[in-house]
Model the fold of this input.
Amino acid sequence: MDRLNTLLEHNRAFVESREYEQYKTDKFPGKGLAILACMDARLVELLPKAMGLKNGDAKLIKNAGALITHPWGSVMRSLIVAVYELRAEEICVVAHRDCGMRAIDPNTILASAQERGISEDTIATLRAAGIDLDTWLKGFDNVSDSVRHTVQTIRNHPLIPKDVPVHGMVIHPSTGRLEVIVNGYGDAEEVAPAA
Done:
C-alpha cells in the first residue's frame, strides 16, 4: 500500500474511534509560547516532551535548522502572527546537536537536484534572476552561533515588540537535554552551553 493510502486508512480509524477528543484545545497557545524548531524527525515527539508541552501549549514552527534565512520570509511572518494574533508572549528558538544543516554544502544539494532532473539551465536561470542559491541553501558551522544569529534576527525585526523575550536553546536529539544559549529575559545575557 502506498504511503498516502496508509495515512488515510489510519486517519479514518482515528476519526471513527474519536481519538481526537484527547487533543481538543483552541488556537491560542496555553503557555504563551511560539517555538521555532528544526524539522528533524527525532524531535517530533521528543521536543514537546522535553519542554513539558502538550497539545495546545505552543505555536510550533518547524524548518530545516531552526533558521531564519530572510527577515521577510514565512518563518518571521508566522512568528509575527503568533505574537499579534495568537497571544504568543515569548519566542523560543530550538536547534539541536547533530543537525543535518550543519556544514551543509549548497553545491552538493544542487548536484543532487541535477541528478533528480533539475536542469543546469534552471539553476543558471535562478542565479541570473538574482537568487543567491549558495547563501539560501547554506547551513551553519556552529549550532550555538546559528541560534544566536536567529535570535538576533528575531529581536532586531522592526515588527517584533521589544517586550517579547526571545530565547535560544539547543536540544540533544537523543536525550532531550536543553542547553540555554540565549536567555531572553532582562538584559538578555547569553548563557554558555553546558558541558
Observations:
- Helices lie at 3-16, 43-50, 74-84, 106-115, 120-128, 133-136, 143-155.
- The first strand starts at residue 33 and ends at 38.
- The domain at 25-104+139-182 is CATH 3.40.1050.10 (Beta-carbonic Anhydrase; Chain A).
